[in-house]
Design brief:
By secondary structure, the protein is α+β, with helices and mostly antiparallel strands. It contains six helices and 20 strands.
Length: 372
């Protein structure tokens, strides 16, 4: 009996001892956990939420500013050889030439096509953006490059600033502005790119052929009535004057580069007159030669195709078939370059032409005449 009671006591003591060990272990573990949390709270960590998609702020896209186009349209005018009283295509007199023009100075000089405005000293009618109609005088015209300048009696009027057509890049965005079909659709804007440079077109005219050289090609839509209108870049600067389209193809329009007439516009704007100097030759660059003859070898310069009987080159020693390589020491490879240089001169000025004939090269001085 005694033995059994002692055994029970020893069993109870052992259980109490185990319970105390468990309690002590739990207390130690809790203490260690509290110390760890305390140490963690003392560290300065930067924290952030982790997610599969990073949160971003919606930033609205900046709307492109096309105000330059609206400003440019104010300088685009309608031009007709007969005063038009109707603004609808249904009632307009379509038997007369009508087209577009661009005001290029604040005192009323307008650049357009020769086939729109007509010959020098003729007159035409100009319709401004506000609907006012002015009689205009054609103060200069050149049918070879299909350009003309008209003067109307206005002052301090919105005009288009001139760009640099020598710096045009292929693929550059451009905008054509004009009056397609009639004044009912005046100042229509079409967008495109520069599709080609220095293009040459062979055009049948007056039972013969003429060659338009150094043209800008664009896929901006150009329709009848757009002739004489503006081709501008994304800075709103005038690069060319729309002149012609190929009707058999889509998206093939052409413009005359603006740089060729800059000397004329500058003189008219500054002095109110332009006395055109006259060389008296008609020539082609290497882009036209393939149309003329496969036997002509022209890698550079201007091929002299004809000489005017009343011009200063006649009887100077220069002959048809010669190649003009330089003028006043400046190399020329385009007829537009030669024209631009002559436009910068005055009647009575002397220029030095470098000429190549077969294996012979020589220089000759030419005194420019006044072109009536």
């Amino acid at each position: 009996m005694y033995y059994e009671n002692r055994k029970e006591k020893r069993g109870r003591g052992f259980l109490v001892f185990l319970a105390m060990l468990v309690i002590i272990g739990l207390l130690v573990a809790m203490n260690l956990r509290l110390e760890g949390m305390q140490n963690l709270s003392n560290n300065d960590y930067s924290t952030q939420k982790i997610s599969k998609t990073e949160e971003t702020e919606d930033i609205p896209k900046e709307k492109q500013d096309y105000s330059f186009i609206k400003d440019a349209t104010k300088a685009v005018v309608g031009i007709s050889k007969i005063k038009q009283t109707s603004k609808t295509v249904l009632n307009a007199d379509t038997s007369t030439n009508s087209g577009s023009g661009v005001i290029v100075t604040d005192n009323g000089y307008i650049l357009t096509n020769h086939h729109v405005a007509g010959n020098k000293y003729s007159s035409c009618y100009v319709t401004l953006e506000d609907g006012k109609v002015y009689e205009g005088d054609v103060v200069w015209a050149d049918d070879n490059i299909d350009l003309a300048i008209v003067k109307i009696a206005i002052a301090k009027y919105p005009y288009l600033s001139l760009g640099n057509s020598d710096e045009i890049q292929l693929g550059e965005d451009v905008y054509a502005i004009g009056n397609p079909i009639g004044f009912e659709f005046q100042r229509t804007v079409t967008k495109g790119i520069i599709s080609g440079l220095d293009r040459t077109l062979k055009i049948e005219e007056n039972n013969g052929f003429v060659y338009m050289e150094d043209l800008i090609q664009t896929d901006s839509t150009i329709n009848e009535g757009n002739s004489g209108g503006a081709l501008i870049n994304s800075d709103g600067l005038l690069l060319g004057i729309n002149t012609i389209k190929i009707t058999e193809a889509q998206g093939m329009g052409f413009a005359v580069p603006i740089n060729i007439v800059k000397p004329i516009i500058d003189k008219l704007s500054q002095t109110g007159k332009f006395e055109e100097a006259y060389l008296g030759i008609y020539g082609f660059d290497r882009e036209v030669i393939p149309y003329l003859s496969s036997g002509i070898d022209l890698s550079s310069g201007i091929y002299v195709d004809s000489i005017s009987l009343d011009g200063p080159v006649y009887n100077s020693g220069i002959m048809v078939g010669d190649v003009i390589t330089k003028i006043d020491g400046i190399e020329i490879n385009k007829m537009s370059e030669l024209k631009k240089y002559i436009y910068s001169k005055n009647p009575g000025d002397t220029v030095k032409l470098s000429v190549k004939r077969a294996l012979k090269e020589f220089e000759i001085d030419i005194k420019l005449k006044y072109n009536l």
